[in-house]
Predict the structure.
Amino acid sequence: MNYGYIIVGAGSAGCILAARLSEDPAVKVLLVEAGGSDRSLIINMPAALPFVYQKAKLGWGYQSGPEPHLDGRTIDEKRGRVIGGSSSINAMIYNRGNPMDFDGWAEDGLPDWSFSHCLPYFRRMETFGGGADPWRGGDGPMHISRCKAEHKLYDAFLRGGEQAGFPVTPDHNGYQQEGLHVAQSFIRDGQRWSSAKGYLHPAGNRPNLTVLSNTLVNKIVIENGAAVGIEIVSGGEARVVMCDREVVLSAGAFNTPQLLMLSGVGDPDELRRHGIDLKAEARQVGRNLENHPGVNVQYATNYEDSLVSELNLFGQAKLGAQWLLTKKGLGATNFFETGAFLRTRDDLAFPNMQFEFLPLTRYVNNGKLVAIPGFQFWMDLSRPESRGSVTLRSANPSEAPSIVFNHLASRQDLKDLVAGVRLARNLISQPAWDKFRGKELAPGLDAQSDADLERFVKANLGSSYHPAGTCRMGADDDAVVDSEARVKAVRRMRIVDASIMPRVVTANLSAAIMMMAEKLSDKIVGKTALAPSEAGYYRAP
């Protein structure tokens, strides 16, 4: 069968595109996903997040590295291989990014991607539990809830931030991002709300929409400089599926550049090394890889003061039963219920550091997650200077690509992360923490000098699982796609996922990816774009 559109990847963007492009009953749409069904208890229950991460069949099992500036270490990189993609396995944290992120895209030659042009699509995609206003949507497919943040350590986090001189912003996805905040999440009625739930499942019965799961795409079929179909493998058999409008890649910042290179689109030298025939030269495919690197800062506290006291065997049984019966209680939370966006230096126009607070500490022991009494920050660098790459290991589509983030290649990135650790310590030194603060577990009080903290950061640096930029959008000749996400080197092909971000945003990526998919779906079908918003935003004095 010929399709009008073929979408590769049923993740945060792909599910939205499938729903939007199939709104026209005259157009046949095919959505192809390498993973299987998202109908799973551990996917559905927010508190089961650690078990989702450990479920091998739900992810690609990728690792970055060896990382040249981390003594050759490798870093696990979670990517969803399931309907819903990473929106079915992520931490469900809803952060849009700072308005200046998008205005920065516009200043770099993409005027249609300013905050005023993006905000209407953020509003269109969401139903915010706090109600609609000029910044927030009230009737979109993605349901966004404000966390309850009722535990006493959440309150200590917010009060300590105020005592340190930082504001608590009432809506960090509204007028002002900077400051501390009560978190927001992709959770509806106590259950994970992925892009599959918001968009794909409601559209699933349309006769013009076909979803192929457990199906690997080997390559895009390119003839005479245009994408005309894809080669897929299902049940061990390969076959070609054709389309007469466009092939849209939404496979993510790792798999999209891999698929382009396997199809003959990329750096000719790289393709020649693997015996792949060149279809179109695009030397920046797989380059410019960005991510949010970070570390945990951990403290001990009394057993009764930590959330661990509610997660003993009895507490776990209560959590499970309460959630199964009512979809309420601790089973309905991702535990990341407060956070912050702060600056580590005054010469920055907007925050460069994100903090996610947990009222417990945890570590991995023999592959199992162990929680101990305490609390911790996950803090990551929002706009690092370091850049990495995605390249091919071989011409075999089943083999993982080679991923090197090149974290800490920039000295400034290391300095900013050290400053972030000191900033976290400042927050915890405030009077609000006096009755809760125990021993500093990581980095530990023996780590005081810059050299000590640099060693700690290098030894413990991890990933927020926010890869972006490997098929960068831009007006310059080196950019892989143009402002409408059209691949410059190949006709009838677009990319809609995090790989086209001109610069990674100051936030978790899911919300921005969904906004981009909403915005670009209008471009693909030729709809008039939503009118730019006149809502302003906070600028630091």
The longest strand covers residues 237-249. The mean pLDDT is 96.
